[in-house]
Design a protein that fits this description.
Layout: E1 3-11, H1 16-27, E2 33-43, E3 60-65, H2 71-79, E4 86-90, E5 94-96, H3 100-108, E6 118-124, E7 134-135, H4 140-148, H5 150-153, E8 172-174, E9 176-177, E10 181-185, H6 186-191, H7 204-214, E11 219-229, H8 241-257, H9 260-271, H10 273-284, H11 291-306
Parallel strand pairs: 1-2, 1-4, 2-3, 6-11
Antiparallel strand pairs: 4-10, 5-11, 6-10, 7-9, 8-11
Helix pairs in contact: 4-9, 8-9, 8-11
Length: 331
Amino acid sequence: MSLLVDVVIVNWNAGEHLHSCLRSIARADQSVLRVGEVVVVDNASSDGSARDLPSTGLRLRVVRNPDNRGFAAACNQGAALCRSDFLLFLNPDTELYPDTLRIIGEFLRTPGAQRFGVFGARMVDAHGRPLISCSRFPSPRLCVGGMTGLDRLAPVLFPPRHLRPEEVARSRQVDQVIGAFFLVRRHLFTELNGFDEGYFLYMEEVDFALRARRLGRPSYHIAQARVFHAEAISSAQLGPWRHYLMLCSRTRYMLRHWPKRQAWLLIGLSLSVEPAARLLGAALRGQPVDVRGTLAVQRAFLRWLRQGRRPLPASLLPAPHVAEPRTARTA
């Protein structure tokens, strides 16, 4: 008897990628892990991407939000409509390979899978080359390395937060799998009350994975299962405001899970050392140096801190600009 999974896709101006994602689900081998229902939650897209979705034979439900509720809230909204034993949170800029669900399902049937609560796959680009699939839980040292660029200059002392391809070449337990393909046992999702909706975008899956591990349900990376990921199709439309959302989410995570003294020390570095390091790094790499945008982001972040770190109203986000199309998957 096959296992059953429901798929939740949160869409915000993903363009044709959403259509390609749905077609890939319909083409996937469902002999072991069968798709019950696909729920698309559209967060007030302005590009028409959630209209005229392809007829693929999937049981498809579309929820249209009048405004952008944020990623975590929209995921919870979609999950509340699901009934299968497994939930798959899938980015609209991903595509499954024909054997992805079969490989995942075969592992879920093994005795070794029973102690894990969250499962991920190997992210690849259009040519099958590995992308970021798993990460370490943030720590003060990892965050300092990322803020200052020391994770590139001195990776032995300041390891990068994202695991290198050689570190995830085989299936293994990891701190967290990335949210682009995030498979969860539904009873665990219910027990943890879903994603923390205080995260508008970024870090919600990190927070969830940490809470799951504290319940004795760690995350597992399945290296044989491939997923094409175009990466940042929606978030790229935010320009420098992506970093603002990351600052807010990272701060929420630190204050929730670290000793307060460590958290506030890193917040201080976020306001002082990090913006200077970002501008210097862009200059050294020959990239455009957006001083005005960086200062605007820092001012907005400081205002968010002063106003009690409340969830970000979507009305404060800038209007999206159309992202450049990415190469489609070739295999």
